[in-house]
């Protein structure tokens, strides 16, 4: 999730431990430790644009790395803050480990994919419960964390955790409802489903994106899983990427071909050729509107590239203002 949310999570759980008079200190150290795993964004290459994708949510986000990550952060924060505030190293270390531990578990609640069990497996876990940005997660936790620190009252911490339990529990319930409605929609179309997933749309848990995969096609729809007759916005479909059919010119031994497979792994095999660009492979998991296949990112290939050339990674936000306006309308329909 975004750094503010990660920091708020690290802070609130760190505030559960230690003396009440140190709640503000626990919040600061827990917040910094909670954001620390995302320093993996510094791992990148000028020549290989996919390196950053491979290493984001990689070893720094592994559950097995938590003790080491917490220790590294404490070795930095104790000299900078802990000693100045009269804290023991063990107290700083405890808050750092707690803050660090919240990060990967929170990320896994989104749809992006997190390597929780690296190096045992490079599987990307995504529980699809909340969006990567959700103000109803961030704002209440941030406010309650600050109140706890200012008033040295742990009651606000308990309120924050209670809110998280309720909100995430409700999100998990809606996720199951959306999946069930997605299955009904697929059955009404007579589809032979290979895989079906429900993902929260941008910044909310009201409207869900349903991705239905058959043998050769992806179908994307939006569902609002409330009431006896949920709202359904039937969307678009796209053929799954077939390299022989879609990119017949591609040298299978080239770096571009290898990069497609790396991107396939990152995108959990949700890749298709862009209908508007015959040399662009897109990740269909994410779009501004949940019922559309207008990917936010993907890779560009070139028939003129040398065998050693990498792909070009792109981001495309399109008409974000118009999409947010339409999504807001869908939430309230």
From TrEMBL:
GO terms for molecular function: hydrolase activity. The keyword Cell cycle does not apply. It comes from the Bacteria. The keyword Ubl conjugation does not apply. The chain crosses the membrane at residues 63-81, 93-113, 125-149, 156-174. This is Metal-dependent hydrolase. Keywords: Hydrolase, Membrane, Transmembrane, Transmembrane helix. It comes from Leucothrix arctica.
